[in-house]
Amino acid sequence: MAVNIIKLCVGIESVEHLIEARKNDPRNKGLDYNFHVTRFKPKRADEILDGGSLYWVMKGFIQARQRIIGFEEVKTDNGTKCMIKMDKKIYLTESQPRRAFQGWRYLDQQSAPKDLPENSPEQNMPTELRNDLKELGLI
Length: 139
Known about the structure:
It is built from three helices and seven strands. By secondary structure, the chain is an alpha+beta fold. Strands 1, 2, 3, 4, 5, 6 and 7 form a seven-stranded mixed sheet that branches. The radius of gyration is 15 Å and the shape is globular. It starts with a strand and ends with a helix.
């Protein structure tokens, strides 16, 4: 069974902001994937590559995910790091509250929020409104 990763999306205000940031990032030009560089390669990489995703936490909620398609070792000025390669498509998920944490964590499939159905009312709702309604228990 696939294992996922969960990570804080620092400096990003909303899913819309994440989509724009990914689209306008010059490092992604010409690549058929997005990437995120982290300090260590996950020990459970094989399980993650079996259909796992990186779930993004923004403003205290898991709100989106990107499917992980690979890992690559990269050399930096600060030593060797791990590049997490992700599919460019960003899936909106049900909002799920999360407290702040450092680095990334594993997220089992059973604990991961479901994707929002395509063209659902929640898909077209601004992120902040969707989070407020979720906190109030209305969605």
